[in-house]
Q: What sequence folds into this?
């Protein structure tokens, strides 16, 4: 299996995954202090999926996210300091403090937005993919959604539409096994989300979401197919989240020590580090330097977000209507 990744690419992949991990771990701490408004849904544990997908994309490609969207944002290149300020609801945030954790968007990097509506992303991606096809840009559009959203009519309709129109859309089902708090073994009748692709006449593949290389390779095939004009694909990524559905979720639906065991045996960052050090001549010193760089970035992001101004009452009526 060829990854087509250079040494520099691998270091960048690690940087994206490590940034997601440290960002989420810090948000977990800061939310507990009471300074972050609204709901927060953390992506920690799922980093290999976002990075493996987005390492195949350019700024001109589009993604639509979910309520658990921080990792997708970072992997697509959204500014980390702007994201932290947005989560704090500050005027300097990516969306000027109007979106918060569940609604971060950055059209300049192709991030169409996190979405509080389960299954809200796939229809948006169909529009972006249709635009790319009609304009002949060669771009692709990717919808991230979970096992819960895999049961939504919007997702089914979008996959059918994408196949019927043969547009460059890719559907990435991040199956963490629980949706909100219900096991997918109970809620997904067919077992694996990926097999549903056959019903829409598109390829479907399932990969280990703890393995960056497996995600990257499956996505590479899907992206190349889409860019050739051969239509959509469905990629199911089986993975585990480290935290609950939302901050404050006691996860009583999970087995005792399940999260502890996942962290000990399936951590995608540990697996990635071991492989690149063994097979790609990357040293621990190089990875530690990235760790230190990211630690400084996260520390600065929190400090600047805390000190940033809140939106004003006058800001309420801005960014409501687009001007043509």
A:
């Amino acid at each position: 299996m060829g990854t087509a990744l250079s040494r520099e690419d691998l270091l960048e992949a690690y940087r994206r995954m490590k940034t997601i991990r440290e960002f989420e771990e810090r948000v977990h701490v800061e939310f507990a202090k009471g300074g972050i408004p609204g709901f927060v849904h953390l992506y920690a544990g799922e980093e290999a999926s976002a990075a493996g997908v987005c390492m195949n994309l350019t700024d001109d490609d589009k993604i639509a996210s979910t309520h658990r969207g921080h990792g997708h944002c970072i992997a697509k290149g959204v500014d980390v300091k702007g994201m932290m300020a947005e989560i704090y609801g500050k005027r300097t945030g990516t969306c000027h403090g109007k979106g918060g954790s569940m609604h971060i968007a950055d059209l300049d990097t192709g991030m169409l937005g996190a979405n509080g509506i389960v299954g809200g992303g796939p229809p948006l991606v169909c529009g972006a993919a249709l635009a790319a096809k009609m304009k002949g840009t060669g771009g692709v559009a990717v919808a991230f959604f979970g096992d819960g959203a895999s049961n939504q009519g919007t997702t089914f309709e979008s996959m059918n539409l994408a196949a019927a129109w043969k547009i460059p859309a890719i559907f990435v089902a991040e199956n963490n096994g629980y949706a909100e708090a219900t096991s997918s073994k109970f809620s997904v009748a067919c077992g694996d989300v990926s097999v549903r692709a056959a019903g829409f006449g598109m390829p479907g593949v399932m990969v280990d979401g703890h393995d960056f290389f497996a995600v990257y390779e499956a996505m590479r095939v899907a992206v190349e197919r889409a860019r050739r004009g051969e239509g959509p694909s469905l990629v199911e990524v089986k993975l585990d989240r480290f935290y609950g559905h939302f901050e404050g979720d006691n996860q009583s639906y999970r087995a005792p020590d399940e999260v502890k065991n996942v962290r000990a045996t399936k951590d995608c960052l540990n697996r990635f580090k071991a492989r690149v050090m063994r097979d790609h001549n990357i040293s621990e010193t190089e990875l530690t330097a990235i760790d230190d760089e990211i630690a400084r970035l996260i520390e600065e992001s929190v400090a600047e977000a805390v000190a940033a101004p809140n939106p004003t009452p006058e800001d309420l009526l801005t960014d409501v209507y687009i001007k043509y």
Summary: The chain has a mean pLDDT of 95.
